[in-house]
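Obj.: predict assembly geometry.
Materials: sequence records (below).
Method: joint structure prediction, all chains together.
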Amino acid sequence: MCHAVENFRTFDPCTLLSPVPAVMVSCRGKADGERPNIITVAWAGTVNSDPPMVSVSVRKSRYSHGIIRESGEFVVNLVDAAHCEALDFCGVRSGREVDKFDRCHLTPMPAVGLSHAPAIAQCPAYLACKVRQVLELGSHDLFLGEVVGVQVREDLFDEDGSLHLERAGLVAYNHGVYQRTAEVLGFFGYSVARPEVLARRMRAYRP
Ligand SMILES: Cc1cc2nc3c(=O)[nH]c(=O)nc-3n(C[C@H](O)[C@H](O)[C@H](O)COP(=O)(O)O)c2cc1C
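Observations (raw structure tokens):
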């Protein structure tokens, strides 16, 4: 049974899901010598584990839309706080008018498994994707991408080989605001972990 309460405001139906990752999606057309481009995307998500798949939703009006559609490739670059300004810039200027790699002092590098779309060398990690489906949803077209290659910067690994992505200071997007993800509150399954496991694991997150 539900009770009406007074300390809430009712919104029209909208996409308030928060926080979400804000990522820089890089792409390049198929023709020789095409300039690579970057579009900032907040409507991105993990959609399948096997095969690994992610989605990015892009309006038809974006310059990147045509590039991704034609090349069938895109790269999802995770963004750290040091590159938040570039993240914002790539979301407010179009590649039709400006070379965003150049303007943001970013370097394109080959992405594992792809022929056209480059990754961004300054980002701590990327997912190289091949487009498997395009769903026309209304305002946005959803590109379903199969992840065909992943690279993560060396300094985010411990000596034992474990990945500490939480140390990258990744940017989250929270209803119009960028935030740095910082404090570790727990880890997957910590609510049921034995006390000695909890203490040992948490030490690794608070060095
Ligand atoms: C934080 C942020 C998130 C954005 N998310 C999306 C998105 O998910 N999909 C989209 O089509 N545009 C999104 N945009 C807008 C595009 O990034 C923006 O229109 C960009 O200039 C398009 O670049 P392009 O024309 O070079 O492709 C976002 C912008 C910002 C600042």
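Conclusions so far: The mean pLDDT is 96.
To do: check interface contacts against the pulldown list.
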